[in-house]
Amino acid sequence: MSKRQFKAESKKLLDLMINSIYTNKEIFLRELISNANDAIDKLYYESLTNKKLKVDKSKLEIKIDIDKEKRLLTIEDNGIGMNEQELSDNLGTIAKSGSLAFKQALEKKDNINIIGQFGVGFYSSFMVADKIIVESKRQEEKQGYKWVSKGIDGYEVTPCDKESNGTKIILHIKENNKDENYDEFLEEFKVQSLIKKYSDYVAYPIKMNCIDEQTKKKKKTDPINSMIPLWKKNKKKIKDDEYNNFYQEKFFDYTKPLKVIHTSAEGLVSYDALMFIPSNPPYDFYTKEYKKGLELYSNGVLIMEKCEDLLPDYLNFVKGVVDSPDLSLNISREMLQQTKQLKVIAKNIEKKILKELKDMLENDTLKYEEFFKTFGVNIKYGVYDNYGAKKDDLKDLIIFYSSKQKKNVTLKQYVNNMNKDDDTIYYACGETIDKIDMLPQVEALKDKGKEILYLTDYVDEFVLKMLDKYDDKKFVNVSSNDFDLSSEEEKNSLKQKNESSKEMFDFMKKQLGDEVSNIRYTNKLKKHPICLTSEGNITVEMQKVINAMPTDEHIDAKLVLEINESHDIAKKLKYLYENDKETLKKYTKILYNEARLIEGLAVTNPTELSNLVCELLSK
Ligand code: ADP
User: Fold this and answer.
1) Residues 534-567: pLDDT tens digits?
2) How far is CA 448 from CA 441, 442, 484, 486, 524, in A?
3) Pair 167, 209 in one domain
4) Which of 9, 38, 78, 250 has the most ligand 1 atoms within 8 A of CB, as the residue to mutate?
5) Is residue 2 part of a domain?
6) Cα 90 to middle of ligand 1, angstroms
7) Ligand 1 binding pocket mutation candidate from 31, 87, 122, 162 (most atoms within 8 A of CB)
8) Which candidate, 251, 222, 254, 400, places its Cα nearest to that of 317?
9) What is the DSSP letter of 601?
10) Is the confidence at residue 470, as pLDDT, over 50?
11) What is the pLDDT of residue 304?
12) In angstroms, what CA-CA distances link 319 with 236, 243, 248, 262?
């Protein structure tokens, strides 16, 4: 049998493992035990539908054996097992090697994070072993096979004699060197405590072959693990570390969760749920492959790894498990969707998560801001998803930066801060807080003592449009035409000025073709000469967002070029209209493009603009 080569990514990973300086090498054991647990789960699950497969649940177990002299640590399960092909497929490639994020991390050589973040599974054994033998026999097959590798050179798969079904993994533990102690992985006590630490909740008994003090012979111990899933344990007796370890191991995250939500219900439908809000987006969160969902168990036995129906789309970042004795085990996916119990659980869970977020917002604002920075866009998406079906539940979970308080505020806080007779919530959109702060319209409004919300996320304005009103107060974009704070008198005077300059504006508009729907004077701007606003339902920000989307959809806001009536430029334009129309044409183009730049829109013809400016500069 010739040697087979590892796939390219696997090779890189192996190299990384063999030469690892990762301090947490002990995690290899929980990875192997977790694989063993999964293999037994798979067998049990298969036996529910495959009547030929006879499984005695009471005999399912994981066995650990240590041979100090030969430096062997063995982990054996009686689960589903692997055949020749599977041994090669599963152990010759990294399971998650298809993931782009993983490949990128490998390229970045961010070694420590790879090990922690991706739960590199089986290969992590190469951190402590210089040779690994995997003997396996697949359920319902006669022949067993052996996979042997010393690491980077490749591996061999050959037939072997194996009586029992399942998988036996034999690690030849490395010799100690001056920096590293590997002997500890051959100490019974150490191995037992690692199992306790990382794998206590594993649902099948983990037993160890230990030397009996009296007979000096090996004897199987009682289960080392308590086998009580963490979610079924008494909340008060669980330490933070236990939650964190559980989360990090199960959901391949190297950071602790931001929030743990442990809840249970009894009554019409009973269930335990243990959920986590990650600190960072899951590594594949922004890929097509990412799927939302919670693990679903029935009385501690896994029914489904990702039950999508348990989470609404906007909470797709939540990780966790749900265990309910009311669900039958061999239920099909289609039927599951329709079960009433599942719907009830999903509804309760959503409520619970929102309640926890609200508590966090009120009692631990800093943490909430951290949450919102990462997943705020999800909450916003929840507001406008489904035509706003959830907007009332979510509107108080949204925060925006406030011009006045110089920090994030809720809509409720904004409204509480308003004068009694005010009926408007002002907002302005832009790329960053600083850029918005410099918008001419914003400056003028701040001068009047108004509070303005700064919207920097591309979805923000859609969110406010969907909410329509908050507490009967309407939302007004300071860059839109609905925004006018002037008195009746001021309004009239402005109107007259605009009417008497109509011919000039028509002339100017002609120079810009279809680009603007209107040009007029404004009294909104303080010291700035011009700004660009919009008429109608589509604002400049919305135009930017929709046109940037990878669809054929294209919209144009109705742009209005507004000129500060009290700025010197207004006088100059009037003069040019009366005396030098050719120059006015050039001024018009320059002013319009300047206004586009201020709004964060691209200039349509930069060369023309630059030539015009230079021409005027050199006069
Ligand atoms: P992961 O467990 O994250 O998929 P691993 O590298 O740990 O990645 O394992 C790769 C695959 O090998 C598993 O998905 C599983 O199909 C198979 N495997 C590993 N250990 C066992 C085992 N003890 N019994 C059966 N199959 C196993």
Assistant:
1) 888 888 878 887 787 777 778 888 999 999 999 9
2) 11, 10, 12, 11, 11
3) yes
4) 38
5) no
6) 6
7) 122
8) 251
9) P
10) yes
11) 78
12) 21, 12, 11, 12
How far is it, in rounded angstroms, from Cα 444 to Cα 529? 12
Same structural domain, 39 and 180: yes
Q: Is the CB of 425 under 6 A from ligand 1?
A: no
- The answer to whether the CB of 118 is under 6 A from ligand 1 is no
**For position 52, which CATH number holds?**
3.30.565.10
User: What does the CA dihedral 218, 220, 222, 224 come to, rounded to 10 degrees?
Assistant: 80
At residue 1, the pLDDT reads 60
Give 98's pLDDT tier (boundaries 50, 70, 90).
Answer: very low
| C-alpha dist (Å) from residue 105 to 7, 23, 122, 317 | 17, 19, 18, 21
Q: What is the 3-state secondary structure (H, E, C) of 114-147?
A: HHHHHCCHHHHHHHCEEEEEEEEECCCCCCEEEE
Helices 502-511, 581-599: inter-axial angle, 10-degree rounding: 70
Q: Do 209 and 238 belong together in one domain?
A: no
Please list, in sequence order, all residues whose beta carbon lies within 8 angstroms of the beta carbon of residue 32, skipping any fewer than 6 positions away. Answer: 75, 122, 125, 169
Q: SS3 of 28, please?
A: helix
What pLDDT score was predicted for residue 113?
54
Give the closest residue (by CA) to ligand 1 atom 8. Answer: 121
In a domain, 225, yes or no: no
CB 153, CB 2: distance < 8 Å: no
Q: How far apart are CA 175 and CA 178, in angstroms?
A: 10
Q: Tell whether ligand 1 has an atom less than 6 A from the beta carbon of residue 80.
A: yes
Q: What confidence score (pLDDT) does residue 64 get?
A: 97
76 touches ligand 1 (CB under 6 Å): no
Per-residue pLDDT tens for 432-454?
999 999 888 898 889 889 999 99
* Contact assessment for residue 193 and residue 199, using Cβ atoms and an 8 Å cutoff: no
- Nearby residues of 305 by Cβ (< 8 Å), 6 or more positions away: 293, 295
The answer to whether 353 and 273 have CB atoms below 8 angstroms apart is: no
Are residue 423 and residue 388 in the same domain, yes or no? yes
Mean pLDDT of 400-417: 96
Task: Choose the final residue of a domain: 193, 220, 247.
Answer: 220
Paired with 271 in beta bridges are 265
Question: Does the Cβ of 35 fall within 6 Å of ligand 1?
Answer: yes
Domain boundary among 428, 447, 478: 478
Distances (CA, A) of 461 to 184, 353, 542, 550: 59, 25, 7, 19
Instruction: Say whether both 69 and 215 belong to one domain.
Output: yes
Q: Which residue has the higher pLDDT, 547 or 273?
A: 273
- Compute the distance between CA of residue 617 and CA of residue 619 in angstroms, rounded to an integer: 6
CB 354 within 8 A of CB 397: yes
Q: Which domain holds residue 370?
A: 365-478
Instruction: Copy the structure tokens of residue 395.
Output: 């509107």
Nearest to 129 by CA among 157, 150, 155: 150
Global pTM value: 0.67
